């Protein structure tokens, strides 16, 4: 139950009560102003308006997903694609899996098929008869999580835990899972290398169960998909499972505001100057925007996607490479768009000063420790 009356829903959506009554009437549902709407009925109205309904569980899910949402976003929430990281023990097939997913998808759908390394990839997946997107981060999973923990930012919605079927649970498998668990990020397991003669998926499931990851077919809650990253086997099922989990997570953001999110990677390019890949986590990022990323700022001169194409706008969950910053930000820095370049410059200068001060303090405190140790 949404626990909202027609009147309350109208207030929240900032529309006339009669609009709601008319909208439902056109669908064959008669309601009055004081009537409480169930969730499904309320959704009929909000979906038509292109917004997700404001119900406690959606808000709870949304605020769990990201601290990037403000109160004013709650009335404009729309679904966004999941952002996925691939984690697992060394040599279990993380790089091969990502390459393989990218290749099959690019080969299927894209003319030219040239990918550009920007640190994130978008793939289109057919799910429930509609084409949906998934965004993969190319940073090694554990690094993404370490950066996230250090800065308190949540950049990934889901993790694929890759476990080689001929090797089983290893130290980094445990570590990866504990990171994901601590961050509250759901895990889908890819049991990889099933093409190998000594692959033993049942043994892997047993070992994972001992960690607390019990497969669905054994009465647990973890989706486990046997795959061969090398041969491209069963990757479609894996992608579909990711979308299934993302549906349950109710991933949302407000595209109708200025963009904000997290710096995924950044470097100084000889020809192009500072280059940064930004993951948009709320709002829409546009060419020409005045932006602050950590202690640097600029006006976005150009945006390039993972196919090397110039784009004008990037909506929530999308990653783009941007040009136009005055300096190189750090991976993990937050970015935000401001109404004017002047504001952006002021905020960036303030942030840079705070960063300098905390570095100075750190340097001084370590010096003090050294002095006391000596005396
Ligand atoms: P990472 O360290 O987790 O990124 O692992 P890599 O993707 O670099 O893979 C390590 C090795 O395992 C490479 O030699 C891959 O070719 C091989 N490999 C990865 N996936 C598979 C697979 O599905 N089957 C087989 N037979 N080998 C695989
Ligand atoms: Mg690798």
Automatic annotation (TrEMBL):
The keyword Protein biosynthesis applies. It is found in: Cytoplasm. Signal peptide: none annotated. Residues 79-252 form the Tr-type G domain. GO terms for cellular component: cytosol. GTP binds at residues 88-95, 138-142, 192-195. GO terms for molecular function: GTP binding; GTPase activity; translation initiation factor activity. Keywords: Cytoplasm, GTP-binding, Initiation factor, Nucleotide-binding, Protein biosynthesis. The keyword Thylakoid does not apply. One of the essential components for the initiation of protein synthesis. Protects formylmethionyl-tRNA from spontaneous hydrolysis and promotes its binding to the 30S ribosomal subunits. Also involved in the hydrolysis of GTP during the formation of the 70S ribosomal complex. Belongs to the TRAFAC class translation factor GTPase superfamily. Classic translation factor GTPase family. IF-2 subfamily. This is Translation initiation factor IF-2. The gene is infB. The chain holds residues 399 to 773 of 986 of the full protein.
